[in-house]
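lol forgot to send this yesterday, sorry. struct tokens for the thing we talked abt
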């Protein structure tokens, strides 16, 4: 019988079955489509020998007036600048704690005692300065001077512990100035109280912390008896009419206050009780947090629904000045135009670019590039009062002055509150507008001049943004991921038909939407979203929309997916300032090397990669990780006058046709007798194809057959062409 050519449309279809997706590919990983043909994606190589401590959440590339190129990288712990192949730590510092004392106990644990409440938390990063050790430790002050430490515990409001690399003999005294790094946020998006309650997730009205005056046992009352009260060191600032406290990971409710006692207590209300009891054991002096009036980024105060968002940044530039805002925190600037820029930290008091008058709690910021306003989204109604943060409130500076927010008849500063939604999720500069998303709607923000400065128009509803970094804009069109589908805006909000929609949304963890990362690769007209699935703490899948394929005859768009762990990203910048895309990959089990932190525990590590380089992954140490890929076709059948799949087909041979083939590619044929039957590879597959292969003889018989192209070795690349096979009818049974 003559050779039959089987044709496949570009992209992946997961909305139908493998039999019903006629003419489509049904699965892929590390594959894209060019000119309608599937090919392995390009490789990537590390740009640094160092890995970054923590998870990167934002990249921003810009150029100074002398043509120097920079990338600002915001992580859950640091603000870094990449310049000329090196990283520089420009993380802003909080207020210095002077003249603390050190206690060594013969182990690697060191206790630092401050003269007043330090307001630090486990996991915070601190810088040691002006170190004088107590005599007799056997250690040198130079081992501690100008070093970074991670706080391990905070036993009391006036003490915290760090870990050193070696033990020091018991001694107490000395002096050290503690310079805390500005707190940014947790690595992942979580629920409830615990790590980062007061500083990471929102604000606490009243007293933030006190301590237990007496230990609590793991029983209903915590006393081993039938008591109904808990004694604190102080109840100042705690709601007297009842509320909630957090002790460790346990939430405890109470109905009243008598002196320093919380009365009418109910323990273990968040389900973290010790087995067989209703509470956990807590030591005397354990930190107690007022959780009664805590609000997690505008959420209702409900222990079951409060969200602690991950540490995020907004990064933009005002000329050659980097403007960096910690999500729900302060705004800082870093000036690339000064001589000592690489040894200068971002600050609110940068000369000529101060942000001391800026709001202190803002969800998102950006610079309007044409009007040069600094715009705060989801910010304070009273500047300087974090408790007034309104997640739907917008405030913008005077034109050309990013530190002036006085609303006067003689300037262009102003404010606006949006209505549709509960919180502003993100904002982007588009071709003619600034686009502002809430969790439910899309608004345009356009400069209109005096007296209003900006005009606002709602252009879409039920199209909210799933996370701050889940939207991207290219050539005047915005693309984004919502909680219920994919959308675009080109003057009109459009729902993007998606051939993998169920695959994505049936398994995405929408409660971790702030971890979603979108990126444009204009070299291949691709928009990629990396996202976390249910049960995954971090991003573990990706989905791609190819907006450049215009000849696809099928109506559900040009989409493809992937699950390769080596391909998952947390940030991405397109090739604009730099010739190729740059991205970061996070390993929660890794240990970062920059910045160097003494006592670092479990922060994970990120690697900065240059994409579309080579065929594989080149790691910071120079080792190579093989980049595998595959694409799987639908289950095709023999077409006869009696219809599709009426007869079994017999495939005697096929002609491999690759447009590009570097190294080898494997071709697997699998067959099935019925749609519900599992596909079984033919006994001769997989077939190894190289540049000299002209034909492959095979024995394949089934009602349906499927084709899989893949590579499994290093230094391999391919682009598949057409598939021609000798197909013959072979009976009905």
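and heres what i got for the seq, position by position
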């Amino acid at each position: 019988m003559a050779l039959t050519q089987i044709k496949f449309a570009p992209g992946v279809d997961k909305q139908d079955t493998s039999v019903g997706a006629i003419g489509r590919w049904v699965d892929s990983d590390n594959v894209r489509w060019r000119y309608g043909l599937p090919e392995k994606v390009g490789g990537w190589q590390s740009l640094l020998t160092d890995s970054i401590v923590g998870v990167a959440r934002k990249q921003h590339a810009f150029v100074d007036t002398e043509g120097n190129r920079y990338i600002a990288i915001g992580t859950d712990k640091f603000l870094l600048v990449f310049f000329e192949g090196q990283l520089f730590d420009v993380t802003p510092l909080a207020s210095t704690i002077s003249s603390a004392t050190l206690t060594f106990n013969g182990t690697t644990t060191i206790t630092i005692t401050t003269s007043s409440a330090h307001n630090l938390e486990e996991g915070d990063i601190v810088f040691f300065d002006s170190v004088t050790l107590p005599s007799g430790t056997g250690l040198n002050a130079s081992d501690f001077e100008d070093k970074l430490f991670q706080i391990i515990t905070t036993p009391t409001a006036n003490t915290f512990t760090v870990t050193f690399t070696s033990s020091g003999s018991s001694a107490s005294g000395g002096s050290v100035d503690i310079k805390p790094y500005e707190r940014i946020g947790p690595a992942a998006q979580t629920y409830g109280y615990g790590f980062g309650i007061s500083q990471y997730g929102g604000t606490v009205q009243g007293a933030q912390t006190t301590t237990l005056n007496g230990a609590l046992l793991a029983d209903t009352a915590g006393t081993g008896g039938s008591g109904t009260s808990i004694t604190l060191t102080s109840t100042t600032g705690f709601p007297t009419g009842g509320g909630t406290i957090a002790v460790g990971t346990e939430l405890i409710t109470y109905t009243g206050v008598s002196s320093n006692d919380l009365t009418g207590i109910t323990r273990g209300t968040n389900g973290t009780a010790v087995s067989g009891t209703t509470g956990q054991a807590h030591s005397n002096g354990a930190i107690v947090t007022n959780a009664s009036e805590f609000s997690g980024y505008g959420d209702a105060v409900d222990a079951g629904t409060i969200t602690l968002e991950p540490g995020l940044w907004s990064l933009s530039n005002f000329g050659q000045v980097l403007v960096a805002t910690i999500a729900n925190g302060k705004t800082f600037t870093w000036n690339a135009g000064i001589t000592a820029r690489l040894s200068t930290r971002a600050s609110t008091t940068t000369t000529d670019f101060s942000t001391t008058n800026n709001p202190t709690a803002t969800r998102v910021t950006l610079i309007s590039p044409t009007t040069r306003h600094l715009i705060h989204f989801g910010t304070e109604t009273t500047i300087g009062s974090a408790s007034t943060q309104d997640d739907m409130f917008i405030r913008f500076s005077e034109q050309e002055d990013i530190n002036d927010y006085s609303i006067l008849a003689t300037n262009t500063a102003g404010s606006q509150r949006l209505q549709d939604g509960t919180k502003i999720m993100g904002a982007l500069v588009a071709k003619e507008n600034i686009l502002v998303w809430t969790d439910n709607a899309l608004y345009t923000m356009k400069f209109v001049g005096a007296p209003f400065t900006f005009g606002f128009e709602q252009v879409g509803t039920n199209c909210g943004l799933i996370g701050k970094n889940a939207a991207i804009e290219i050539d005047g069109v915005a693309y984004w991921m919502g909680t219920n589908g994919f959308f675009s805006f080109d003057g009109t909000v459009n729902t993007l038909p998606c051939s993998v929609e169920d695959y994505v949304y049936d398994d995405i963890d929408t409660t971790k939407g702030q971890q979603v990362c979108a990126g444009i690769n204009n070299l291949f007209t691709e928009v990629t979203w990396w996202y976390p699935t249910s049960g995954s703490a971090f991003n573990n899948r990706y989905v791609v929309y190819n907006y450049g394929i215009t000849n696809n005859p099928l109506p559900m768009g040009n989409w493809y997916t992937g699950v390769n762990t080596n391909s998952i990203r947390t940030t991405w910048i397109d090739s604009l300032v730099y010739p190729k895309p740059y991205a970061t990959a996070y390993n929660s089990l890794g240990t970062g090397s920059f910045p160097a932190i003494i006592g670092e525990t479990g922060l994970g590590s990120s690697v900065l990669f240059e994409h579309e380089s080579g065929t594989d992954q080149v790691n910071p140490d120079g080792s190579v990780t093989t980049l595998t890929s595959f694409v799987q076709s639908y289950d095709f059948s023999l077409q006869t006058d009696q219809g599709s799949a009426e007869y079994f087909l017999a495939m005697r041979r096929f002609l491999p046709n690759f447009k590009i083939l570097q190294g080898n590619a494997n071709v697997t044929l699998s067959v099935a007798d019925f749609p519900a039957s599992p596909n079984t590879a033919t006994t001769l597959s997989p077939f190894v194809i190289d540049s000299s292969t002209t034909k492959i003889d095979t024995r394949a018989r089934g009602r349906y057959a499927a084709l899989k192209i893949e590579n499994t070795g290093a230094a391999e690349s391919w682009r598949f062409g057409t598939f021609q096979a000798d197909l013959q009818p072979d009976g009905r049974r």
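Residues 628-729 form one domain. anyway ping me if u want another try
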